[in-house]
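Researcher: Here's the sequence for the chain we discussed earlier.
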Amino acid sequence: QVQLVESGGGLVQAGGSLKLSCASSGSTFSSRVMGWYRQAPGKQRDLVARISSTGSTNYANSVKGRFTISRDNAKKTVFLQMDSLEPEDTAVYYCNTDQPYRPWGRGTQVTVLS
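Model: Thanks. This is the structure I predict for it:
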């Protein structure tokens, strides 16, 4: 069973930066679209950014220009560089493929203080 392990979250002041990492145990990682999702308390889980196997990227409008998704296929890891963080970015962040999803990991908490 594929495992996804997110890390890199934390507490940061508004305007600060964090870099999230997600390590996958999947054997087909390099051929899969990968995405970062987030879920704030009481809200649904939403897609934040996605990256294709060839490196093409897409972003939610709310993070465009502030977040950058990247991947290292050799290390089976996907990253999310988050700059100019806002309190509205506070959420638990998860990585996963496109649907059908792999089992969700525990996520990593990001808290942005105003």
